Structures are given as C-alpha cells and as structure tokens.
C-alpha cells in the first residue's frame, strides 16, 4: 500500500473509531483516544493550551535535568532535523514543550497547531500524540497522521521516546521527532529511541562525575565522625558514600529532607543539607523523633539573644539573633530575599543573608532547613510563648515574664515590627485591666517609665474617693 492510500485508510479508521466503531484502529491508539475522551478533549474544536510564557520556559529550562543533554539530543538527531518537514521537540515530564529545532518554514507551520515552546501536549490537554501518549505508556510510541485525537494534528507524524533519570528511573521528559505525514516515517521511532538512550548514558556519566566531586568535597565530614554511622546522600536519596559501608542501602526510598527521618527499618537519622540544591550529610540518631532535644531561644529584654542547643547555651551575635527571631515568628519559612528585607530593609541582598545562614547552620545544624528557610523540630521561644499567653495569663505573671522588649538594640525592620507589636499588646493589657499595682510596675520599669498615658491613668485610680480618705485600688469597702 502506498503512502497516500495509507493516509486515506487511517482517516477512514479515525472517522469510524470516533463514531463508535472500536475495531477500526489499533488497540494502543483506541485506549489513548478513550483516555482523551474521558478527559474532555474535543477532537475538532480546540488546540493544546500554551501554559508557559517565554520567560517561564527559559527559567524552567535553566533548572531542568534535560538542559545538559539537549545539545547531545540535537547533535544525535541533526541529520533528521536538517531535512525539510522535520521538527525536534523535547518536553518535560508534564508534556510541556521546552526545546525545539527545525527548519524555519516547518516551525511556522507547526505554530498554527500550537506545536510551540510552552505548549502542553500531554494527553489530558491534547489527546493522542507522540509526546503525551509516550508519557502515559512510558515507552517509545509513534502516532501517524489520523491516529492523532485532535484533527489539527492529523497532518503530522509524531515519534516519541521517554528519557528517564538513570539513577532513580523517574521520567524526565520525552524526545519527539515530528514531521509531515507525507514524509517517510519508518526510521523516526528508532532514531528518537536511540537518541533517548544516548541522553540517558550522558546523564549517568554526569551523575557519576558529580558524585565523585561531592565525595571528594565532603569526605572530611565523614572522617571526622569516627565511630558514628554517617553518609553523604544526594537530594534524590542516592548514597554517595557511607561510613561504615553498607549501614544504609545504596538508595533511600524517599527524597531527602532536612531534620529527623524515620527509615523503613525503624532507625532514625538526621539529615543536614550541605549546600543549596546539593547533597545531605546524614547521621544515625540513637533517639527517636519524640526524644529530640528542644531548641530554646531567648530574646526578651536581651541586648544579645541566647540559644540552647542540645542542652548547651550559646550567646548569639546580633545578626544571628535577629535571623532566629524572624524565622521563629514565621514557621512556614521565608526565602532569602524575604529574609533580606526583614533584616536589612528594601536594600537587603539575598547573598548576604545566605552567607549569614550558612554560619548560623554551624550552630543549629539540621534544624535550619531551606527552600524556604525555616526552623524545624521542637522549639521554644520566650517572645512566642509570651505572645500566645497574653490574652489569658494573669497580668502579674506576664509582667514577671517580661524583662523588656524583644532585642531592644536591634534596628532590623522585622525585629522592630515584632518588638512594637508585642510591647503594644502588653501595654494595652495593662491599661485595660486598670490594676494599680501593675501600672506602678509598668511606669517604674525601664521600658515603661516614659509612658504618660499609663501614669495619668494610675493617677486617676489613686484619686481620693471622699473628702477625708483615698480609696485604694480594688478596695470596695464602705
């Protein structure tokens, strides 16, 4: 059968299959069409959505694992891409088109059906196609002409092959060769399959080089921990080096996170990130998560904050005290940019904050997590506890617990805001309760002696209740 007759045959099959004749197309295509139908894709009245703007595509590519193998894919398939009517695409694991190459006129033709960077060609958005169906089946797949679910794509043949992370096996994306349905297609699927395997080999070699670099860079962290089970582990759970060997499996079942983690066999380990986006230093932990030591922070009335870590007290530098207080006040975490604004104001630089946090991590270790920066594990802070108890605790008790405002010497915008809010709440409580003893304590303290409003209110309380005697606050006797 010649190419033209095959095209007409597939078009008749498509019409029959979409009309309900399930025997009219190959089974893999029918299953894909059914998935597209259940997803609500209209075969004749829509185009794949373009979800990512140009800037978003550029930013996404910069962070994507396939960025390092795009030149390899392009070089491997250059002969095919250089021929008229061919376009090379690489998508991410969600089906968004991230890279493309081809003849200018062919690229312009493809734009009309949204075969463009940033477009989503997964099956839920675009039905049966070389990218989306390959992502679902996770094997090389070719969609020829009228086998496409969307009618706008039936003039193309799309051949896709999955690219997997060689260490984890997770799907990274699809390499797809798209060409006119009139162009011979016999070698396209074999070509993209071969290119995907070459890309995976390059990724494997790059990972081995990076693991060797990290091993050399952080080996001293292991050798300093003689007699303690420790390891260097990648963010995806691959164990680069363990001391002693084999106390951990070669790969951990879950991606790494900072803090205490329970292993499947019931053991506990502590993970500390060694660099942004980089590996983790792991230590075996003899205690359970419930037994983890509480991190204790004090900053009320203190020129310099103090911190108790694992039962040992430390006086913090001014900057580290400010960082701890701001992080404690925001349990959900802050980015480096947000922290820079809280500590330095609008002109603050994220790089300066990251350097300070790296120094602070030497003290608090794994408890300082990142992405975003936040404190983990059980924590106590005098100003947090005080703020929580302000509404219900007795006023005399509150005044006993308030030696002064939070970090009074700090001029960091975030600390000034925290300090003023807490101080004002306590002052409002003193005024509202109208207790003469509490007011006296307030105006005789260093932080309340310049408060004329409370001094005036106290004077009114002490005014004589009759011509011959003064009534003491709280005295209701006749």
In short:
With about 475 residues, the protein is α+β, with helices and mostly antiparallel strands. About 40% of the residues lie in helices and about 15% in strands.
Q: What is the fold's blueprint, element by element?
A:
Layout lengths: L2 H16 L8 H12 L15 H10 L6 H7 L1 H4 L4 E7 L4 E6 L1 H8 L11 H4 L3 H8 L3 E4 L11 E9 L6 E10 L7 H36 L6 E4 L5 E5 L15 E4 L5 E6 L6 E6 L9 E4 L7 E4 L2 E4 L2 H12 L6 H9 L5 H15 L3 E2 L4 E2 L3 E3 H8 L5 H6 L12 H21 L2 H8 L8 H10 L17
Parallel strand pairs: 11-16
Antiparallel strand pairs: 1-2, 1-5, 3-4, 4-5, 6-7, 6-10, 8-9, 9-10, 11-12, 12-13, 14-15
Helix pairs in contact: 4-9, 11-12, 16-17
Account of the protein in words:
The strands form four sheets. A five-stranded antiparallel sheet has the order 2-1-5-4-3, with helices on both faces. A five-stranded antiparallel sheet has the order 7-6-10-9-8, covered by helices on one side. It folds into four domains: 3-205, GAF domain (Beta-Lactamase, 2-Layer Sandwich); 225-288, no CATH class; 295-378, Orthogonal Bundle (Arc Repressor Mutant, subunit A), CATH 1.10.10.10; 383-461, no CATH class. It has helices at residues 3-18, 27-38, 54-63, 70-76, 78-81, 104-111, 123-126, 130-137, 188-223, 318-329, 336-344, 350-364, 382-389, 395-400, 413-433, 436-443, 452-461, and strands spanning 86-92, 97-102, 141-144, 156-164, 171-180, 230-233, 239-243, 259-262, 268-273, 280-285, 295-298, 306-309, 312-315, 368-369, 374-375, 379-381. Helix 4 runs antiparallel to helix 9 (188-223). The chain is built from 17 helices and 16 strands. With 478 residues, it is α+β, with helices and mostly antiparallel strands.
């Amino acid at each position: 059968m010649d190419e033209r007759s095959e095209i007409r045959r597939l078009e008749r099959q498509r019409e029959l299959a979409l009309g309900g004749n399930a025997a009219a197309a190959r089974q893999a295509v029918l299953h894909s069409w059914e998935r597209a139908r259940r997803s609500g894709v209209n075969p004749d009245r829509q185009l794949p959505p373009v979800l990512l703007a140009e800037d978003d595509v550029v930013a996404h590519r910069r962070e994507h694992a396939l960025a390092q193998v795009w030149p390899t894919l392009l070089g491997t398939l250059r002969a095919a891409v250089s021929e008229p009517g061919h376009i090379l695409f690489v998508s991410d694991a969600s089906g968004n088109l991230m890279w493309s190459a081809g003849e200018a006129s062919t690229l312009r033709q493809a734009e009309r059906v949204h075969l463009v960077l940033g477009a989503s060609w997964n099956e839920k958005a675009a039905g049966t196609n070389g990218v989306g169906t390959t992502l679902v089946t996770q094997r090389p797949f070719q969609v020829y002409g009228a086998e496409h679910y969307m009618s706008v794509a039936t003039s193309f043949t799309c051949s896709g092959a999955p690219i997997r992370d060689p260490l984890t096996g997770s799907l990274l994306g699809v390499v797809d060769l798209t060409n006119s349905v009139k162009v011979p297609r016999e070698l396209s699927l074999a070509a993209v399959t071969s290119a995907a395997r070459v890309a995976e080999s390059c990724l494997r070699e790059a990972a081995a080089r990076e693991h060797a670099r990290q091993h050399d860079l952080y080996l001293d962290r292991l050798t300093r921990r003689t007699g303690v089970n420790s390891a260097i582990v990648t963010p995806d759970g691959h164990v680069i080096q363990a001391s002693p060997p084999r106390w951990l499996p070669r790969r951990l079942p879950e991606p790494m996170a900072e803090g205490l983690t329970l292993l499947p066999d019931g053991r506990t380990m502590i993970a500390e990130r060694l660099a942004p986006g980089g590996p983790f230093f792991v230590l075996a932990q003899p205690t359970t998560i419930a037994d983890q030591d509480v991190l204790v922070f004090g900053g009320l009335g203190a020129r310099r904050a103090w911190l108790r870590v694992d039962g040992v007290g430390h006086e913090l530098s001014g900057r580290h005290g400010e960082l701890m207080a701001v992080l404690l006040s925001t349990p959900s975490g802050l980015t480096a940019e947000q922290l820079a604004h809280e500590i330095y104001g609008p002109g603050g630089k994220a790089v300066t904050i990251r350097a300070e946090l790296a120094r602070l991590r030497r003290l608090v270790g794994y408890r300082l997590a990142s992405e975003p920066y936040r404190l983990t594990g059980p924590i106590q802070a005098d100003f947090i506890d005080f703020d929580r108890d302000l509404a219900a605790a007795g006023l005399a008790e509150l005044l006993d617990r308030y030696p002064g405002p939070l970090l009074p010497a700090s001029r960091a915008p975030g600390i000034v805001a925290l300090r003023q809010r807490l101080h004002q709440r306590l002052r409002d409580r003193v005024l509202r309760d109208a207790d003469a003893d509490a007011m006296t304590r307030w105006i005789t303290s260093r932080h309340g002696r310049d408060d004329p409003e409370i001094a005036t209110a106290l004077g009114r309380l002490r005014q004589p209740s009759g011509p011959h005697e003064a009534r003491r606050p709280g005295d209701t006797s006749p």
